[in-house]
Write a structure and sequence with these properties.
Helix content is 37%, strand content 12%. The chain is α/β, with parallel strands linked by helices.
Length: 218
Amino acid sequence: MKTWNEFFNLIKEKDYWNSLNEFLDNEYKTHVIYPPRELMFNAFKKTSLDNIKVVVLGQDPYHEKGQAMGLSFSVPSTCKLPPSLVNIFKEIEFETGVACKKDGDLTYLADQGVFLLNTILTVREGLPMSHKIKEYSYFIKDLLEFLEELDQPIVYMLWGGPAQKYEKFITNKNHIAIKRTHPSPLGANKGGWFHENQFILCNQFLKEHNIKGIDWVK
């Protein structure tokens, strides 16, 4: 069985990986960057490769103090829910008929095999998309190609344009992509997010492959 160590060993000698780390060394030294560097790869720590059932691919981390925790769309339980997460919970409630707790820590999903990933892993405080650099696009490409070598059924949930650009790398016949607009109010309120049955479709696919579905409600 493949491991995350195998992935990081594959990329550690690549030019972009060295360049990315040099960039981050300087950014963390000279600016306030989220999430804290020790949480940058939290999604990898919380969800092992052999446990992955779903990959949620977002945009970049929350950019306000105390929010980003290295899991896409997740915030610590003591944090006010960001608008994107409010809309995620609204849709989960609509599709399941069960009310979500107002606790934004999505570790309960990571523990079930939901790999909560952003296309960009870091951000400057108060400046969304400030770390939109080519090195991250190379990293995500290599990561998805690595995931595509896994035989287990996987559902990719691609939220927003930046995430959907990576659909072309999803080629494994045991994997599917569900595309929806980004859950931020700017995207969701224009259509393509609410009442789209994506969480239902995800669990249907898993169950068709004899895999336990995700309990989306905490």
